[in-house]
Amino acid sequence: MKKISAISRKMWTIEGLITTGIFLAIAIILNIFLEFNVLWKYVIICSIYGLALVILINSLLMPKYRYKKYRYKMDEEKIILRYGIFNEKNVVIPMERVQYVGIQQGIILRKFKLLNLKVHTAGGHYVIPYLESEVGKKAQLSISRIVQERRI
Questions:
Q1: Helices H, strands E: what count in the chain?
Q2: What is the spatial distance between Cα 12 and Cα 115, in angstroms, rounded to a whole number?
Q3: Most buried in the list 60, 102, 114, 146, measured by CB within 10 Å?
Q4: For residue 10, how far is the Cα from the chain centroid?
Q5: How does pLDDT run across 53-94, given as a tens digit for each residue?
Q6: Which residues have CB under 8 Å from 3's CB, separation 6+?
Q7: Pairing outcome for strands 98-104 and 89-94
């Protein structure tokens, strides 16, 4: 099975740091604008700080393990995804169930020349995260070609 890009560790850390920053900003703004001193104000603000701390610790420790566990495989018949740290999931997507394949690439992903490959089926969608741009585009074209050939 193939691994996703090694840069994914950095991307998961960046994602966690951005989320932590948003929670900290919300806590600071609430602390400034909620002027009265009541217990529930402090409970809410401390809860947000605690959540931000948990997200920060998660974003610094878990990317290494997420990277080790995330694997994918594609062939003419199916796509296999294997991921999860505590609860490992093994997803098999038959090619005949695939409706279309999309690429998701934001500003940060573009800077690192990565993309997320989204495989859409009738039952939902699955993401293969943080593929190198060339690998992801080739995979998208390959899956699209297989799906079109099966429909003919």
A1: 5, 7
A2: 13
A3: 114
A4: 12
A5: 999 999 999 999 999 999 999 999 999 999 999 999 999 999
A6: 67, 70, 71
A7: unpaired
